[in-house]
Amino acid sequence: MTEDFIHFDKNDELCIIYVSGEVDLSNSAEVRKTILSALKTTPEVVVNLAHVEYIDSSGIAAMVEGLQFANSHGKTFGLSKPSKQVRSILELARLDQVFRID
């Protein structure tokens, strides 16, 4: 279902999606698809970004789309443990004030 850079743990209430490596135009569609699929079947989705070394605007867009879907469908969406590189991009874009980040 997903590629090697994405795996997840899921139960009835929560799905944690673990992403690693680089999230860019070549694979952000897979990240987006995984997030949206999880949100359709689980009330809360958290994307763990601890092992993401690089994320570009298409990867950020996948996260924003997940947040928008969650908000419009009464779901909960958040990010967890963003790597230093990801956190700096989120802060630069002021998205650290938009996303719930654990």
From TrEMBL:
It holds the Pfam family STAS. It comes from the Bacteria. InterPro entries: Anti-sigma_ant, STAS_dom, STAS_dom_sf. Residues 4-102 form the STAS domain. GO terms for molecular function: anti-sigma factor antagonist activity. Belongs to the anti-sigma-factor antagonist family. This is Anti-sigma factor antagonist. It comes from Marinicella litoralis. The lineage of its organism: Bacteria, Pseudomonadati, Pseudomonadota, Gammaproteobacteria, Lysobacterales.
